[in-house]
Design brief:
heterotrimer; A alpha+beta (801); B alpha+beta (157); C alpha+beta (288); A: 801 residues; alpha+beta; 7-stranded mixed sheet; 5-stranded mixed sheet; 28% helix; globular; B: 157 residues; 5 helices
Chain lengths: 801, 157, 288
Amino acid sequence: MTDNYVGKRVKRTEDPRLIRGLAHYVDDIGLPGTLHVAFVRSMYAHAKITSIDTSAAVAAPGVVAVYTGKDVSDKIGQVPCASALPDLKVPDHRVLATDKVYFVGHPIVAVVATDRYAARDAVDLVMVDYEDLPAVTDVEQAANGGPIIHEAFGTNIAYKLTSGEGDVDAAFAAADRTIKQRILHKRLAPIAMEPRGVLARYFPGEEELTIWSSTQIPHLMRTQVALMIGIPENKLRVITPEVGGGFGSKLNVYAEEALLGWISMQLGKPVKWIETRRENIQATIHGRGQVGDIEVAFKNDGTLLGLRYSVFADLGAYHQLLTPAIPTLTGLMLSGAYRIPAIQMNITGCFTNKMATDAYRGAGRPEATYVVERVLDLVADNLGVDPAEVRRKNFPAASEFPFHTATGLDYDSGDYEAALQKAQEIVGYADLREKQKKSREEGRLIGIGLSTYVEICALGPSQAMPAGGWESATVRIEPTGKVTVLTGASPHGQGQETSFAQIAADELGVNLNDVTVIHGDTGIVQYGIGTFGSRATAVGGTAVFVAIQKLKEKAHKIATHMLKADASRLSFEGGKYSLEKAAAAAATTGTSDPVVPVGEAPAGALPEPQTEGKTSLTIQEIALAAHVAKDLPPDTEPGLSATYFFEPKNFTFPFGTHIAVVEIDRETGDIKFLRYVAVDDCGRVINPMLVDGQVHGGIVQSIGQAMYEEVVYDEQGQLVTGTLMDYALPRASHIPEMELDRTETPSPVNPLGVKGVGEAGTIGATPAIVNAIVDALAPFGVKHLDMPIKPENVWRIINGH
Amino acid sequence: MKKAINLSVNGVSHTDEVEPRMLLVHYLRDVLELTGTHVGCETSLCGACTVMLDGQAVKSCTVFAVQADGSSVTTIEGLAKNGELHPVQEGFWEKHGLQCGYCTPGMIMTAAQLLDRNADPSREEICHGLEGNLCRCTGYQHIVEAVQYAAKKAGQS
Amino acid sequence: MIPAQFDYKAPATLDEAVALLAGDLDGAKVLAGGHSLIPAMKLRLAQPQLLVDIARIKSLAYIREEGDQILIGATTTHYQLESSDLLKQICPLLPECAKSIGDVQVRNKGTIGGSIAHSDPAGDWPAAVLALDADLVLVGPNGERTVKAENFFVDLLTTDLQPGEILREIRIRKPSGRFGHAYQKVPHPASGFAVVGVAVNLTLNDDGSCKSASIGVTGVGVKAFRATGVEAALAGANLDDNAIAAAVAHVCDGIDPNADLYASSEYRCQLAQVHTRRAIQTAKARVQ
């Protein structure tokens, strides 16, 4: 192998099409005769549907069909939930509402028309009569005697679960001190810039259905939708063209995906639905939504003894794919980066009259990190010591890995002290604390917030996953020497077309431009799991790497045969199998070129591989020989291709330290960033530029959560933040200049040593920001503030309101 | 009810009959099949649909096609000239100013306008100039660097 | 995302526009930049039958001096005001206010006349034209009339414009003497509209005391208003910090401040006071 690409800031191969506006997202695909679908959605949070009159809509110009819940309920299966928890209550979740609506945005009627304008007009012509029912939006009220949402259950509690190891009661009994704090995690809207969209086309003759969907999981979606609409799985092709962001919101199987497929089968025409932003905020999953009480037991010297976290999880009205599982991920990560001998999590998952919660960037783990990192600050405050010191006191040492936690995990590798140290050096921590002290005396409110997070990535071993945790890759070298990588991962902005090509190009000793990475088409790519949970590179990239090793074993065998050499004398370097060691050494950084350069290929037959007098062969020459197949070793299959399904034995555990420095305006409560330093360790880095991008994006989503974002429903269940006029996303002018650095602790879980970084920013940054704001307000006796921390909250504290 | 409109898009003249309510962004995407201009919100806030209308960056979801009658429109597809990327496009590629790419065309058009009016903007001016464009992936930092790169590049040529 | 159907006319002259409006007093709406109206139409909160597009009437977009007046055509865009070298010299409040509106795309298309005629309680221009004591020239089927900005803003999204009338021109007396301007705004983090916007037009006497202060406030009430209590307290006063602080305490006098998810009435009033003070201090510092 060579090291031309891995570890370097390689520009993305995805970008030329994207920066020229030539890429295709779902709505950019135009098929002749496409019909457009628009939905009538509930304006009520909880109501009986007393009647639906579609006659005016049916008669409207351009309208082709109108479907109600009654039309489809016995034709299309339930919207799936893949979480299997003990005694989980799973409501009957149909693609369209039938007798009742359970949340604002609940789809009731689908209108199909010849264009999107006609479809939209017809929506206004559908008359739905409701009988309003009392709604429940507060999760604790839902658990404790509020109006029952799903009558058949007689309760709004979907499940209760207790997890953790160690004797928590004993830990609290033995503790010098304990602290209890209520902590809220508000609902967030993922807001991928491309809303969801589905295009479905059925060919009645071939009985083949193709669905283009903006999803993170094409294969899982294919399986589920095939089951829902009763089409053989191998007659359904799912294509994810360009996907404009997901952040977990497209790690799901939605009613609209199955319904569009089914409608196309009914009408024999392509049908398209593109979500509006209002629909997106109403009816695409939300994230977070926990009300928790954290208790910590510790000694006078700061040693942590035990943690108990009791949570009401706001699940929403229905389960989407992973809804009930998300809070359980919180339970997994409650040990944070610390040695805590006893941990207990108690979850009460509750139905509310709101859209379902599910995976949003971090998916349950940010809640854990936030709680733990807040607790460490509470402990530090209680003991009157620096927050960094309490953290140091409880870090496992680098030599203690793999490190077993009381949440039942084995952290793969880590050096938490190193990341903390580095971040403190960059920010100039000691000086900063001095400066803070001085400026406090001058009346300025400066706060310094730390977060020494650890996250769980590379989801994950199949034992721990609802539907398989492996990932797949096929690598083949075509007769012309071009390398094709088929990955089961489904990147949507993360840049794996580039980073996987970097891995392949180095492992095969070829040019990056000769590698094409294909993903997101179940008709082309072998079954895969998808892109979520910071898994694509650690699991999918490893599959690519191992597939290449398999491919090279075969190539080695063919090279040995072609060069009539002793296999042990043949080495692979710089894209060549060479007999002479010296030649091999010279080729270390070189790459080999295709046998038939594009554009120069002669018409007609491929050239015959030439071996006469050669002491080395490029891998492309071997590929050609493998395809021409006139002279292969005995019992060798023609072709040069290998497939590997990589099953990780463990998760990976990236970590790092984020430090935020803020200053507060006393008069207005405005919060301004003075510094933002992040030192992340995501194991070995394939492309530092892409890693930086992931970290930046995650930090800014954290800024959103910490300071701006909150999905608000009122007491009647009306969505108050229903547009981007009300739901604030961070803008360019809201962000600090982020100073990034890294430590690099390879993971032993996979041969690449990579860990994953997609969620690091959203997990690590939120507590650093909140800790900084709370620290700034320490002179006012503030111990904790719930997010989003808006200027008014701050102003009220400062001014005693 | 339909109105005839005539406009030049990326240097090509088009005449069509459109409903007055057809948004410019739908005209560009659905009629002219120039799908590089995206729709990201419905409240004129995200900037994904930004195009140049007579040299001014506008949100094409907040302009009716009939309002653009007689105008000249440049979309992301028309920004590169003679196969050569615009400095802003180059900056986005060099500095990893995009991830999912959905906001990118609008972001690039706005950044091009910004540099038209201010050849050497400060970081603060860049951030202010991009306030009308939302990006959920990049955290903006690489976008700012991309614009700085483009400013430098344009200054050199 | 998709508006209801309507008819569209683009008259070549203002007279034609007035005639078109007169033909459908209930269903017709004037379209200028469209940046208030079109978003409302896309959400189907507004469903006019007819749009009369006045942005094509070339003679309606201008910034010019005439005697001791500055005349601004109604369809002049925010960007034209923001970038006007003339205004930066003779009336810097206008470019400063323009720069704070929405974002560059909005400023390129949105117009001062549209914004004033829409009278959004969180729009920026109403504060500025109040502070500058502008005259608004309205034209309708019965001819032209001029209304003081102060009398133009009537209530929430309601102005003195009568059915069939169009705002044609904004007239501002050229600031003179020792004057200083400032526009101070807290933008809503999502919408960019003013949570609080304060426009200050300050004139000093030779001894540095306040000759007159004219202050327009937006975002705080159902409509933009003159902070008359503050103005009265400042008139003739020495503009030291104490005097300014005492004066700005009156900014919400007689107003029932708006409340929303971002800012309660109480906090909004606090923001109004702080930013009025800061705007006055900035304006004072800018006096030549």
